[in-house]
Every structure is written in structure tokens, then in C-alpha cells.
Amino acid sequence: VWAMAEYAPKPVAMLGEDAPRGWRRLSGTPVSTAYQRGYRKLVFSERFEVRIPKENLSLFPTPEAYLRRPLEMRGWLTSRNGKLHMTVRHPSASLRHSWGRLVAERPDSH
After folding, report:
1. How many Å apart are CA 45 and CA 26, to the nearest integer?
2. What is the pLDDT of residue 34?
3. Are the C-beta atoms of residues 25 and 7 closer than 8 Å to each other?
4. DSSP alpha helix (H) spans, the chain
5. Is the pLDDT of residue 58 over 90?
């Protein structure tokens, strides 16, 4: 199923004002990180960000480890105040490096 074109990850750069909400597979490269009340954010553009709740941060490598690296995100795309975002709670279920290694494998776990 995942090999079918309609289920392929959509580039974050292609998200427009009318981007359909709901469960999506997206691909993109975060350019910065930021803090927001209750979240650590991976910012992909002015229009899209991935949010990691603070209570789940210990499950992830440092957010800076993701910067300028292609990622695939899986989850629920939502909109608030004109910005699109996806909240991820666990790396193995939500984020995948485009180069094939699951983010759940911490760099220091070898």
C-alpha cells in the first residue's frame, strides 16, 4: 500500500492554503527549532511546523539533530491561526529519516 502513488509522502513545500487536513505523510527538511508553550518545534517554513510535546521530548534525539536533514512525517495535519502543524509524540511512529534509519535509534545508542 505505501508504495502506491496516492500514499507517497507529499513535500511540505507543496502545502498551500487549501491543504487537506487529516492524516498525512509529508516530507521536508526542518530549517530551525523553536520553543512554544508546552512544545518544542521543528520549523520547516513560515507555514508548517512539527510540534513535539515537552513531556515526550525525552523519547527523541535533540531537536537540533534533525536540522537540515530530510525527514518524513506521519500524522494528523491540523491548522491553527493560519499555520499548519503536525504533533508527534513518538519518533518511531511519526518521524523517519529519508536516508532510511528510524529516528528512534539515538545517535549514542551504538
Report:
1. 13
2. 95
3. yes
4. 91-94
5. yes
